[in-house]
Each structure stands twice: as structure tokens, then as C-alpha cells.
Design brief:
Blueprint lengths: L2 E5 L12 E4 L3 E3 L10 H6 L2 E3 L5 H4 L2 H8 L7 E5 L1 H11 L19 E5 L2
Parallel strand pairs: 3-4, 4-5, 5-6
Antiparallel strand pairs: 1-2, 2-3
Length: about 120
């Protein structure tokens, strides 16, 4: 399986991007640069994202990514994470203030992102 490094840094600058890796074409690990590191077609092909933590270097572009794929897919992208990370995403990112709640848009039964917890 081909592994692509989209970014592997804790901060962002012209030469550094937040943590994101692609395993093949459908699995992303972390979302620190999952939008800026992939074309729109590549983003649309992602089916699963594994988040290794809730800090911004791991989730910074998850909202941009969700916005990019919103309404362009028939199925939700599954975001695998711990319950603590899911809680942090719902409280701090997908809260209707920072970003729309893409875990219930366009509808609760057909969301853009589906959080699946693993503890």
C-alpha cells in the first residue's frame, strides 16, 4: 500500500504542514493538511479518517475538508477517533460557531462526517 505524507509537523509555515498521511486513496490519518494536501477529487475519494488526537495540528483542516466535500458525496466519511476527541470536535469545532456541524449536515441521517468512537 502506498503511503503519502501530506504534512508531518506540529506547526504550519510555507515549508511545514500539519499532520496528515494518506494510506492508499481512501484512508487519511489525521487532518492537519488533508484539504491543502489533496486535490478536490482526491478529497472526494476519502472514505475514512483516523484522528490520533484532537489538537489542531491533527484536526486543523477537517472543517475545510468537510466543507469541500459537502453535498458532493452520497455517503458519509467515517471519522475514527476516541470519545474524548469526538467530544472535543463537537464542542470546539463543529459547534455552529467555528464551523457548521457537519456531523448532522445535510441531515442527521445523511451527514457529511460520521464520528465513530474507539476507546
Amino acid at each position: 500500500m502506498k503511503i503519502r505524507v501530506l504534512g508531518c509537523h506540529g506547526s504550519v509555515s510555507p515549508d511545514h504542514k500539519g499532520s496528515s498521511f494518506m494510506w492508499g486513496d481512501k484512508l487519511a490519518v489525521d487532518a492537519g493538511s488533508v484539504a491543502s494536501g489533496l486535490t478536490l477529487d482526491e478529497q472526494l475519494a476519502v472514505e475514512d479518517i483516523i484522528l490520533t488526537g484532537a489538537s489542531l495540528d491533527h484536526v486543523a483542516e477537517l472543517g475545510v475538508f468537510a466543507d469541500n466535500v459537502f453535498g458532493r458525496r452520497k455517503t458519509a466519511i467515517t471519522v475514527h477517533c476516541t470519545q474524548a476527541t469526538a467530544d472535543a470536535l463537537k464542542k470546539g469545532l463543529f459547534n455552529g460557531v467555528m464551523w457548521p456541524d457537519f456531523t448532522s449536515l445535510p441531515s442527521a441521517s445523511q451527514p457529511t462526517l460520521r464520528l465513530k468512537t474507539h476507546d
